[in-house]
Amino acid sequence: MVLAPLFIEAGVLLRLGDPKLQSLLGTYFAAFLFAVGFALDWQSLEIRFVGYVLGLAPIYVLMHLFRRTNMAKLKLLSDLQTFDLAQADCRTDFDREFIHRAITEWYGSKENFTQYVRGPLRGELLGSNKEILPLQYILLVSTATFSASLDNIIALDLGQVPLYWQLAQAIANCCGFHLCWFVMFLKLCIFLCDRFAAPMFPGLLDFVQTFVLFGAGVAFYYVGAELSRRAYLASLEASIAWALSACLLAVLSFFTDRIVNHRFHSSQRADGSAARSGP
Fold it and tell me: Which one of 118, 180, 184, 222 is most buried, counting C-beta atoms within 10 A?
């Protein structure tokens, strides 16, 4: 048994259902801001950063929704730790008797079933969370921004920009930033939403918590955008070096993500074991 069908698919839907608003409206809104900035000669770092914050604003909503989804997952695992069959609700008394009779037949007793749910079943669900979101889903989401970045290459070609600089932007911007760096950006946002899913403060302050996580993601995104911009404005060689570096970091992020996620869920299993063995 795994949590994937219940929570991973929900996470992807948050990015590909309404998140088409993020991928499309967010991208085009940011492009509009950048076009206005170019027309008005707004080339300062501060103005570009504001453009990124506004352009990525839909992700704030998605991160908050994803935090709630992950919180439901954590609540499920927590509830399993203190599962009590006697407290389980049934619609009718007939259903309750039928289920209890089946449990007794399969597990020997109601107490054995309760211990199975609290121990092996919960441990199996925790052990199934090797990846917060599989690679294929992340690549599927990143195709939206990668495809949008190809518009720049078409514009450069129509403007008869030399092939040298077209290749520089294609390698640095499309591959290095909108593919490799964007994959890391997604993984960072997903990890932050999973690691800090539980509200630290009640009420409206929970939205502030999401905003802090969103700010960390935007800062990471902005650093990559600036490095990419400097690379393709410098030379083709710099673009290749940047793209290779971003690709290497993206590959390494999958290994570090598994290590951190394994340690996080291992600590949850240890807490559950301590709670069962305690007084």
Answer: 180
Q: Is residue 91 part of a domain?
A: no
* pLDDT, greater one: 113 or 233: 233
- Give me the domain span that covers residue 71: 4-83+132-277
CA 176 to chain CA centroid, nearest Å: 19
Domains of the chain: total:
1
- Asked if the structure places residue 233 within a domain, the reply is yes
Other Cβ atoms within 10 Å of 144 Cβ, number = 20
Tell me, yes or no, if the pTM score tops 0.85: no
| 173 part of a folded domain | yes
Closest residue by Cα to residue 185 from 223, 157, 221, 149 = 221
Radius of gyration of the chain (CA): 24
Residue 262 CB partners (closer than 8 Å, separation 6+):
130
Q: Please report the beta strands in the chain, taking only residues with DSSP state E, as ranges in sequence order.
A: none
Rounded (to 5) percent helix, strand, coil in the chain: 85, 0, 15
The DSSP code for 81 is H
Measured distance CA(179)–CA(162) in Å, rounded: 23
**Residue 90 domain flag:** no
Residue 134 CB contacts under 8 Å (≥ 6 apart), including other chains: 8
Residues 91-127 pLDDT 10s: 788 888 888 888 888 888 888 888 888 777 777 766 6
Measured distance CA(235)–CA(247) in Å, rounded: 18
Q: How far is CA 131 from the centre of its chain?
A: 11
**pLDDT digit string (tens) for 184-198?**
998 888 888 888 888
